Amino acid sequence: MQLRDAVIVVTGGAAGIGAALCRRFAAEGVRGVVVADRDEEGARRVASEIGGMAVAADVGVEDDVMRLVERATDSYGPIDLFCSNAGIATIGGVEVPDVDWRRTWDVNVMAHVFAARAVLPGMLARGRGYLLQTASAAGLLTQLGSAPYAVTKHAAVALAEWLAVTHGAAGITVSCLCPLGVDTDMLRRVEGGIGDMLRADALTPEAVAEAVVAGLAEERFLILPHPQVAEYFRHKADDYERWLRGMRRLQEKFGGEP
Ligand SMILES: NC(=O)c1ccc[n+]([C@@H]2O[C@H](COP(=O)([O-])OP(=O)(O)OC[C@H]3O[C@@H](n4cnc5c(N)ncnc54)[C@H](O)[C@@H]3O)[C@@H](O)[C@H]2O)c1
């Protein structure tokens, strides 16, 4: 897609990957960038830096997402690119309390559903529109130490695939961003060996934003800022049993249970 003159919304835009996307898009001569985040002050900071608009929104709440789309459209016109990027990580296995499973589900999966539900009717009527969903390499592989993250990111990839298949012929383009470690607050909070392993290969948020701009230009479905993820994904599909054995060995190395 052409970013010049585009109207773009980025959720989770106050920090990390989202903030880097906002800054990178602004450098492309877009019509407007809407920086949406539950951290209102952070969103304002990024928006004022790039001459965009800040909107406070909790993307796990559908009314907030609808209001965000209305405010973006009122200020700049129809949304060309909606980057559903906000996400949270929850450490633990099946013992994680339901309230935390549900919150992770709402932010990492339902937020993408709410966004698509809000913008698709207009995009379908115009015969064009772009959805970028930030999932994770965890959505293609797994996330050691975090069942809610692994499960919800798989669901996010599944939704992106489904939207791409179902609405592709009607002019809707979908990209799914699946990085490994990125040097942001989210990764800094991951403790122990797993965190250290991810940090060893971490990219800067700016490098991820660069990969996104290249992926959008090519309208590529899977955007993989870490090219090794494609190889790991192939290994998984080629020999699932072998891949599971390898992941178990890695899990053992980091201390057994989550
Ligand atoms: N950092 C990594 O290593 C990594 C790797 C793969 C995928 N990701 C994914 O990238 C995305 C961005 O992560 P990041 O590393 O920049 O994280 P981050 O924690 O640095 O920033 C996330 C931003 O999202 C906002 N946010 C969180 N929940 C929200 C909600 N309910 N409503 C609105 N805003 C909310 C936060 O306030 C914050 O500004 C997430 O979806 C994450 O799962 C991150």
Which features would summarize this protein structure in a list?
globular; 7 strands; 258 residues; 10 helices; seven-stranded parallel sheet; binds nicotinamide-adenine-dinucleotide; alpha/beta
Shape: globular
Number of strands: 7
Q: Which band does the percent of strand residues land in?
A: 5-15%
Low-pLDDT stretches are none
H and E order: EHEHEHEHEHEHHHEHH
Average of per-residue pLDDT values? 97
Give the biggest sheet: 7 strands, parallel
The largest sheet has its strands arranged as 3-2-1-4-5-6-7
Structural class: alpha/beta
Question: How big is the Rg?
Answer: 18 Å
* Fraction in helix: 40-55%
- Bound ligands, named by name, code or SMILES: nicotinamide-adenine-dinucleotide
Intertermini distance: 41 Å
Number of helices: 10
What does this protein structure show overall?
The protein has 258 residues and is of the alpha/beta class. It is 54% helix and 13% strand. Helix 9 (228-238) crosses helix 10 (240-253). It binds nicotinamide-adenine-dinucleotide. Nicotinamide-adenine-dinucleotide is lined by residues 11-12, 14-18, 37-39, 42, 57-60, 85-88, 107, 134, 136, 179, 181-182, 184-187.
Produce the secondary structure layout.
Layout: E1 7-11, H1 16-26, E2 32-37, H2 40-50, E3 53-56, H3 62-76, E4 81-84, H4 98-126, E5 129-134, H5 147-167, E6 172-177, H6 185-188, H7 192-200, H8 205-218, E7 222-223, H9 228-238, H10 240-253
Parallel strand pairs: 1-2, 1-4, 2-3, 4-5, 5-6, 6-7
Helix pairs in contact: 1-2, 1-8, 3-4, 4-5, 9-10
This protein binds nicotinamide-adenine-dinucleotide (NAD).
